[in-house]
Write a structure and sequence with these properties.
homodimer; alpha/beta; Aspartate Aminotransferase, domain 1; Aspartate Aminotransferase, domain 2; seven-stranded mixed β-sheet; four-stranded antiparallel β-sheet; 12 helices; 13 strands; Cys_dSase-rel_unknwn_funct (chains A, B); Cys_dSase_SufS (chains A, B); cysteine desulfurase (chains A, B)
C-alpha cells in the first residue's frame, strides 16, 4: 500500500514512537502530577520532556507554556475562544481550515467582527493588506502557515512581523507545516502556535498542543482538576496547569516526544527537502497529463507537501476510489474541511484529489503513483 | 511494586489493550472518517466498535451518541457548559471533583445559581433533599456516582429516578465507578454520563467520553473540522460529529474498546466483587491500627474501591513517601482535586492517604500493604 494521506495523519510512524508509547503505558503508566510516587513522577517527567522537545522545535522560550491538547483543533479553540472577545475585530485568510472558520463563525454570532483577507490568486496575504484592513478594534491575525487544500504557504515570517508591528496578536495554525518547515515563534513574533502531534511531528493521534508566549493571557476552554491548588474552586493561574485539566494522554505525549526526537535526529531541513522534492515530482508528472488540473501555486513557488488536483469529467471520489481499489494507493478526496479555501480555489463543488507524501514516502512510490494516476485518467477518456 | 492508585489511572492494563493500540497505530493508523481509502475506513470502524462497547456497558441506546473526549473532565465540561445557561439553577453534592466544582464556579460568575446539597454524614443525598431544594429555575442535578476522596457512593438509581420525576436533567460523573459498578442510563433516567477511559474501563490515558441521551441538545465545547458537511461554516448537527471536531485518539479509543471487552469477558460483577472484597480487607486491617482514622462510610455500607485515611501525627505525604520509598507501594496522598469533599470529611488541611486497588490487585498484595502500613505507623510512634 502506498500512503499519500500524511496531511490528515502521518503514517507510518518511526518505531521509536510506538516504543515510547508502550514503555510509558506498560512501565510508568501512572497519572502524572497527581501523586508523589515514583511511577507518577516518571510519567510527569515523560511529559516534561515532550514540552522541551516542542519548545526547541519552534524556538519557543518556555517549556511550561507548551500546553498539550486533544488535537490541533482543540488548541485552536483554546486560542481563539480564549483570546477574542465580543467587540473585537479579527483578520484572517481565505485558506483557513474549519478548525478556525467554525470557531470564528460562532464568535461572529457573539459580536466579533471577522475580515477574510483575499490575498493574491492563491490566498497569500501581504503586509499591505494587513495594514489596509486593520481597524481600531482589530485584536488579532489568525492564519494557517499552509493551506491543507492547495498547499499554498504564507510568508509567515514577514506576515507575523508585520502584524506585530501593527500591534496585533498573531495566532498560527501550523497543522500542515509543524515538523517540516521552519517556525521561530520568538523571532517572528508569533504569540500562539497551534500544532497537531500526529502529522509532521510524527506522534500518535490524540496529541496536539498550543504554545502560549509569555505575557499572553487566555481564558481556559476546560476547567477541572489539575493536581495543583486542589483546595481552590478557582482554576489555577500557573501554566501548564491552567489549561490542562484532567488526565493527559501520557503515552501519546511520550510518543510525540519520540516523534520530535526523530525529526531532530535526521534533521528537519532534510525532511523539508525530501518532501519538497517529492511534491515537485508529483507536480511535474501530473502537469503532463491532459485533463488534469493542478490546484494551488506553480511548481517554482513555496508549498507544503500537499497537492490537490481535479480530473476533467471525473468526480474526485471516483479517482480516489480507483486509486485505492485498483492500485492500493491511499489519498484523500472531496472537500478537506476548509470551505473557504475550496471557494477560493474554485473547487467547492467538485472537491479535489489530495496527495500528501510524508517523511517515509519514497521516490519509487511517487513514480508508481504517477503511473497509476496516468492509467486512471487515460482509461476514463 | 504494588500499585494502589487505580482511582487516578488503572495500571497495569490487560495485554489486549496495548495490542489494540499497536494494531491500530501500526496497521490502520489513518485518519478515521476523513477519507474513503481502506485504512481510513478500518480506523473509523475501530472507533465505532468502541462506541458500541461503551453503549452496551452503560445500557445506553445509541452508539452514535457516545462522544469521545480527551478525558472525563473534558466530557464534564461539555455536559455542564453545553447544558447550563445563565439564570439556571443547579443542584449538586458535596462529594464532587474539581472537574465539576470548577466549571460550576465559573458558571456562578455568569449568573448560574448552584446549591451544594449537604446530604448525610458522608455527603449522600436523598430524594427528599432534592425535592426540598428544587426551585422553579432548577435545571439539572449534577453528581458523581462515588467520591474519589471518601469512596462514598450515591444510591444513583434512586436519586436519578427521583430527579427525573422532578423534571431535572441528570448529569453523572462516573469517574470512580464506570466499568466496576452497574450503571443503566436508560432505565435509571441518566441524561448525560461522563466517564474516563483510563480508570475502571482499563483503556489508555487520553480517552474518555460523554453519553448523551437521545433528545438532549448541547452546545459544543469545540468547533472545527469533522470530515462531514465540510462545505459549511456551521458545526454539523448530527452526532457524534457535532461534538468530535478534530482528529480523534484512534489508537487510544481502540485500546479502550479492548479494555471494555476485557471487562465483558471476565464479567463486571466479578470485578465489582473482587474490588469490594479487597477494599473491605483494607478497612478491616486498618481499623485495628491505633492512630489511623478511616474516612468515609463504615465497612458494611456501599463504597467504590477507594479508601482514604489519615495517621495521627503524620502528614499524609510522609506516609505516602515512606510507602513508596521503603516498600514500593504506590498510593496517592494529599488533596484529591475535590476541596468540597475534603471539607465535608474534615480533611482539607491534612489531606489523606488514598488506597485504590484495581482489577489486577491481589489479596496477597493487600496483606503486604497492611503489613507495611502497620510498620510505618508503629515506627512513627
Amino acid at each position: 500500500m502506498i500512503y499519500l494521506d500524511n496531511a490528515a495523519t502521518s503514517w507510518p510512524k518511526p518505531d521509536s514512537v510506538w516504543e515510547a508509547v508502550m514503555h510509558v503505558g506498560k512501565n510508568i503508566g501512572a497519572n502524572p502530577g497527581r501523586a508523589g510516587h515514583q511511577m507518577a513522577i516518571d510519567a510527569g517527567r515523560a511529559i516534561y520532556n515532550a514540552r522541551v522537545a516542542v519548545a526547541r522545535l519552534f524556538q519557543f522560550p518556555d517549556p511550561l507554556r507548551v500546553i498539550f491538547t486533544l488535537n490541533a483543533t482543540d488548541a485552536l479553540n483554546l486560542a481563539i475562544f480564549g483570546l477574542i472577545k465580543p467587540g473585537d475585530h479579527v483578520l484572517t485568510t481565505r485558506l483557513e481550515h474549519n478548525a478556525v472558520v467554525r470557531p470564528l463563525w460562532i464568535l461572529q454570532g457573539r459580536g466579533v467582527e471577522v475580515t477574510y483577507l483575499d490575498g493574491d490568486e492563491y490566498g497569500r496575504i501581504s503586509p499591505e493588506e494587513l495594514k489596509k484592513n486593520r481597524k481600531a478594534n482589530t485584536k488579532a491575525l489568525i492564519l494557517n502557515h499552509a493551506s491543507n487544500v492547495t498547499g499554498a504557504m504564507q510568508d509567515l515570517e514577514t506576515i507575523a512581523k508585520a502584524a506585530k508591528a501593527l500591534d496585533l496578536f498573531v495566532i498560527v495554525d501550523a497543522a500542515q507545516t509543524a515538523g517540516v518547515f521552519p517556525i521561530s515563534m520568538a523571532s517572528w513574533g508569533i504569540d500562539l502556535l497551534a500544532f497537531p502531534g500526529h502529522k509532521g511531528l510524527l506522534g500518535p493521534q490524540g496529541t496536539g498542543g498550543l504554545c502560549i508566549m509569555p505575557g499572553i493571557e487566555l481564558a481556559p476552554l476546560r476547567y477541572g482538576g489539575t493536581g495543583s491548588q486542589s483546595e481552590s474552586e478557582a482554576q489555577p493561574l500557573c501554566l501548564p496547569d491552567r489549561f490542562e485539566s484532567g488526565t493527559p494522554n501520557t503515552p501519546g505525549i511520550a510518543g510525540l516526544a519520540a516523534g520530535i526526537d526523530y525529526i531532530h535526529q535526521i534533521g528537519r531541513e532534510k525532511i523539508e527537502d525530501h518532501e519538497t522534492r517529492l511534491i515537485k515530482s508529483l507536480m511535474q508528472g501530473l502537469s503532463e497529463l491532459k485533463g488534469v488540473r493542478l490546484i494551488g501555486p506553480p511548481v517554482e513557488e513555496a508549498r507544503a507537501a500537499v497537492l490537490s488536483f481535479t480530473v476533467d469529467g471525473m468526480a474526485s471520489e471516483e479517482v480516489g476510489f480507483l486509486l485505492d481499489k485498483a492500485f492500493h494507493i491511499a489519498v484523500r478526496t472531496g472537500l478537506h474541511c476548509a470551505p473557504v479555501a475550496h471557494r477560493k480555489s474554485g473547487t467547492l463543488t467538485t472537491g479535489t484529489v489530495r496527495l500528501s507524501p510524508g517523511v517515509f514516502t519514497t521516490k519509487a512510490e511517487i513514480e508508481e503513483v504517477l503511473a497509476s494516476i496516468t492509467q486512471v485518467v487515460n482509461e476514463a477518456k
